Amino acid sequence: MVFSQKLFLSINQEISQLNVNLQKMAQANHPILYAAAKHLFKTGGKRIRPSIIFIIAKVTTNDNIIRPEHKRLAEITEIIHTASLMHDDVIDDCDTRRGLNTVHNVFNTKIAILAGDFLFAQSSWYLANLNNLEVVKVISKVITDFAEGEVRQGLTNFDTFISIEDYIEKSFYKTATLIACSCKATAMLSKTPLNIQNDFYLYGKHLGLAFQIIDDILDITSKEDKLGKPSGSDLKNGNLTAPLIFALEEKPEILRFINQEFQNKDDIKKAINIIKKTKGIQKAKDLAEEHIQLAIHIIKSKFTCNDTYILLLISDYILKRFN
């Protein structure tokens, strides 16, 4: 991918080693569990989260060196992310992910849930072995937040009264918390002052929210071959996202499809066509840009070095995924 090749040239070696280590960390005694656990690691993904950790590590250390504990944190973060995807795919009954059949499709639902649980357990074990209680507290909260986010999403499925504020809060629990907490934990491992740790937490939070909003736009605007999973999945599962919430203000006729839970074959396609005729997608993109600007402001106003520039480029990349 051009993104990782050009933007992250300075950490290519660390990303390559991370990919090797993830395979080792997914090892389980039972061959089926091992096969299921490493299934999602096959395609690699974008590795955005570990890449951000590596860059922040360089920004926050005097010698610009990524230390072993930073590398381990990056691996833990990616394992937690992958475990959450396995569970998400079961909950959403998603057939494909990153262009591959999902774990529960290849094996079965029980194996997928157990594999996700196994990866969460592995991440906790490696996290404990960092021997840094404060970092353990910060990252452990992520797993609690994931569960909170899933419950909130489940309780608001097909709920047409959901507000943008509700949506942002849910997006924090489901996506932004991992990026925010891992950014803060990176600064903690670099032994930076508390105010610096909190700055990186806010940077990660706003970056994560923007990432989720753009993801939700792409669910409506992109084709399945580009997404790596079926488009319109959010609508199908009753997960009302920013583009749809904004579109409802202009086109309340979409309510009919939501209230019927898209029961007819072409309902999702019809709803997407209506959304595209509104300002919903543009308003959602504007909302993502607001969060990107907040993230950029934190970095620009307080940190200046070559690697800081890469953090700004990451923000730009997240917005350009929309185009």
TrEMBL record:
InterPro entries: Isoprenoid_synthase_dom_sf (IPR008949), Polyprenyl_synt (IPR000092), Polyprenyl_synt_CS (IPR033749)
Sorted UniProt keywords: Chloroplast, Isoprene biosynthesis, Magnesium, Metal-binding, Plastid, Transferase
Cofactor(s) in the UniProt record: Mg(2+)
Gene Ontology molecular function, alphabetical: metal ion binding; prenyltransferase activity
Gene Ontology BP term (one): quinone biosynthetic process
CDD domains assigned: Trans_IPPS_HT
Similarity-based family: Belongs to the FPP/GGPP synthase family.
NCBIfam families linked: prenyl_cyano
Protein name: Prenyl transferase
Species, as recorded: Thuretia quercifolia
